[in-house]
Amino acid sequence: MRAFLFVVQWILIGLGVAVVALVAWPSGDPAGALAELRQRLHGVPARGYAEAVRRAAPAVVAVRAITRGDAPVNPLTGDPLFRRFFGATADAARTESSLGSGVVLDATGTVLTNFHVIEGADQVVVSLADGRAANARVVGTDPDTDVAVLAVELTGLPAIELGDAAAVRVGDIVLAIGNPFGIGQTVTQGIVSATGRNRVGINTFENFIQTDAAINVGNSGGALVDVHGALIGLNAARADSDGIGFAIPITIVLDVARQILATGSVTRGWLGIDARDLSPSLARLLGTERGIAVLGVMREGPADRAGIRPGDAIVAIDGHDIGDSREALERIAALRPGTAVPITGVRTGRRYEVTATAAQRPRRP
User: Fold this and answer.
1) Rounded to 10 degrees, what is the CA torsion of 9, 10, 16, 21?
2) Helix (H) or strand (E) holding 71
């Protein structure tokens, strides 16, 4: 009897859904009605992600970085017999180019891309999806986060809509838009595999969105967007393993871009220490259960002048407890150069308090 009632219950639910569909969509398009109902019930687009692509793709550009240099000297050009038959020829300059992607941030011509896409380039050319192209000026770069800001002088630029990277959840569907292998704009789809991914070994400061959407050669600097076409990350790299790609959250990209647009560079604090996480053996040796182990101190750097020594442990910076070296790096980077910073350390099992004056973090070469 219980099984019979269970079957009847689901039959009635199915009939109810059908009635709702017929009442809500009397147009005679049952397939469209069911797709629309599916979207309302589960948040799944009724007809794929074409609308998201339509909104985002025009703002994703191809970025070509051109590097010029002297070609190897041809020994035959100095031979009289060679010149007699082929004439005097100058050694041609060597030109190399690499392709990446970028995203139009605003209608005034600000374009975001990766630093490694344009690193060392003598000329940068931005090509739009509508066929227009123009030379770009490098406004500024930040190698520590792999972000570069370009400027192009074109009118009527389509700016991308900005999303909320903080709202991104594992399992969310995302689209990667870029220019892989130089074959033209391409869209791939995947999910968010992880957020806050660090210790990848790509950048100094890492807080990646990990995705299984294909991010191939040439996709670097392109857009990672949500199902509404809003930008949530800047595609950065692909790991050696298949199905693993990384994007820089748009919150980090925008913070870097705003500093570059305002001052031409990014300002971060620095104390001049080389530190590592505490292993259980190090924790016992240093006499503390938390913090970071100081392996080295830059001579005449802020930490050195404050009295911090190799072999110490640092357990708090500016009043914040420190759990690992990544947290310490971010806390220090957030300091304004010239600020007096209280630091709590441990030496041979005894706590001590010192004050260091944060300096400007040296730019990574």
Assistant:
1) 180
2) none
- Using CA atoms, how far residue 197 sits from 8, 206, 306, in Å, is 48, 7, 33
The overall pTM is greater than 0.85: no
Give the helix/strand (H/E) hosting 1.
none
Please name the amino acid found at residue 200. V
Asked if residue 121 lies in contact with residue 66, where contact means CB atoms within 8 angstroms, the answer is yes
Neighbours of 31 (CB within 10 A): 8
- Cα–Cα distances in Å, from 139 out to 118, 135, 261, 364? 12, 13, 7, 17
- Rounded to an integer, what distance in angstroms lies between the CA atom of residue 221 and that of residue 180? 11
What domains can be seen in the chain, in order of their start residue? Answer: 165-249 (2.40.10.10), 269-360 (2.30.42.10)
Buried b (16+ CB within 10 A) or exposed e, 153-186: ebeebbbbeebebeebeeebbbbbbbbbeeeebb
Q: Hey, which residues are catalytic here? A: 116, 146, 220
Give every residue of the chain whose pLDDT is below 50, as ranges.
Answer: 7-8, 19-23, 25-28, 37, 41-42, 78, 80-82, 84
Residue-by-residue DSSP string for 260-276: HHHHSS---EE--EEEE
Please provide residue 246's backbone torsions phi and psi, each rounded to the nearest 5 degrees: -130, 145
Say which residues have a Cβ less than 8 Å from residue 59's Cβ, sequence separation at least 6.
103, 104, 157, 158, 159, 160, 223
**Residue located via tokens 């039959």:** 11
Over the stretch 257-313, which tens digit does the pLDDT of each residue have?
Answer: 999 999 999 999 999 999 999 888 888 888 888 899 999 999 999 999 999 999 999
Residues in the chain: 365
CA distances from 130 to 103, 134, 142, 157, 175 (A): 14, 12, 29, 10, 20
